[in-house]
Predict the 3D structure of the following.
Amino acid sequence: MLFGSNVDHTMDNYSLRTPSGMAMLSPTTSDTVGGKLEGKLDFGRTKATVGVDYQSNQRTAWGYMAMSPAMINLANPSSLTWPDVTIAQLGLYAQTETALNARDTVKFGLRYDHVRADAGKANTVVGMTGKTPNDYYRQVYGTTFDKARTEDNIGGLLRFEHAFDAETKGFAGLSRTVRTADTNEWAMARGMNGMATWVGNPDIAPEKHTQFDIGFQTAKANWTLNASAFYDHVDDYILQDSVAVTMMGTTSNRTIYRNVEAVLKGVEVSGSWVTGDWTLAGDATWTHGQNSTDHAPLAQIPPLEGSLSATWNSEGWQAGGRVNWATGQTRVDLAIDPGKSVGYATLDLFASHALGENLRLVGGVDNVFDKTYAKHLSRKSVFDTTVARVNEPGRTVYLTMQMTF
């Protein structure tokens, strides 16, 4: 398999809204190429997959600002936000699945990645400020992106599955995965009046996740149940942080990236029960994230949330309702999260009717009571500080026709 994509994207803070401050414009490009060669082998009780994959992404983004959109001068940029950043990753991998007997299966996987990152325009002088991206890296971290950074990352998986019967299975697994930094985390370079305001870290280390997970699933004649839990210890978790700095007598926040130790853990449960023409179903997930270095919560961790539904099916008709719910999240990192969130519950109603073997009319009302609410993972706006958290849609009515062929 070979693939490639070229993206040209222009962001601004004035086309769809009135800017609260300076008018800002950022034309960006993101070009990706890659491919994969994979083989599948069969050795009796053992099936194996081996392969090699490659991906290279190159990104460039300029920044412009002025008192009004008409005053923006494309010959005089204010920042080189992504200074021709290329992150290339070459990987080798192998995975086996071995049937030990009629009920027990073992899966084993191993992966090696060589990563190379560079910033081709790190020494380019930006017209309005006279600064280079390297000036900002040096200002914040005491380093530059004059030379490429490389990583050699190794991951693996060991998983045991046991079938209690034809309908019920349990599993336990231990894995190590490595996540390299993205373009922002490695090489973001934004400043104002010659002072860094949002800067990536050229020396950031990749995240190493060591995770244990365990689970159970069953599918009986009229009911199902799935439950799983995980514990993930993260070495060198890449933390987006905010630090206070004083620029020209004014104190403001600077966004930086650093490595910390962290722990993630969680539980997920889902199930259903069929009784007559009715199907009752529900699910719930809970995640806990802790910054062990700073003894503080991790940002952007959802609260306990889930759904409950009841659906009636009979002779081509289907109708029902679903309650979507979430508790409030009080464990937040105010450097990233817009603040604590409150719990909510919304009601959706839906119905459908089969007009033929392959044709179905579907309609419904989401958020029936037009409740105002926002999910915790909604982020505050970088370009409009008056927007702390974006609300989800209010009452929504829809009617669609579905055809399968």
Summary: Residues 125 and 359 are 61 Å apart (CA to CA).
